[in-house]
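Tutorial handout. Part one gives the primary structure; part two gives the three-dimensional structure as tokens.
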Amino acid sequence: MEAELKEEIKRDCIGLLRAASCDEGVIKHCTAVAELALEIAQHQHNDMVDEALVLRGALLHDLGRARSHGIDHGFVGGELARELGLDERLVRIIQRHVGAGITAEEAKELGLPPVNFMPETMEEKIVAHADNLIEDQKRTSIEAELSNVKAKLGESHPSTKRLIALHKEVIGRNVT
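Part two.
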């Protein structure tokens, strides 16, 4: 991706985050996720994904944190993106980025609309996984993220297996 286009996308997306009243911590987190997501797209999926879409999606993935810091921030952010008239592919990235995805059954249990929030396209998967590997603004390991998920949800929660599978699909190797 050309540097000029990358900077234009960053400027536009950060402007949208600020206009929505996202705080600077969220914006810095989104920027860190975007840098990692773009790296993954370029190194693991060269010419197989829409890099501009990955960059936009990663920069805007936490748009919903302007209104909620709960598990519903992905859904809320997608609805906000839709209100702003953003591309439906961006809406789906934003709504499907939480963890390694949320099934319709899990969504219902969490008080979300009973919709499948599982990432489907490679762009959606890259953004979701890059977000998993950034804690605040720092990169973390898949092992550390797995440990966090197990501590929060339990060793046998389906999210653990989904995170491992997502890592293998996006990064191209098993968890060690």
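Part three, for discussion. The domain at 3-171 is CATH 1.10.3210.10 (Hypothetical protein af1432). The chain is about 60% helix and 0% strand.
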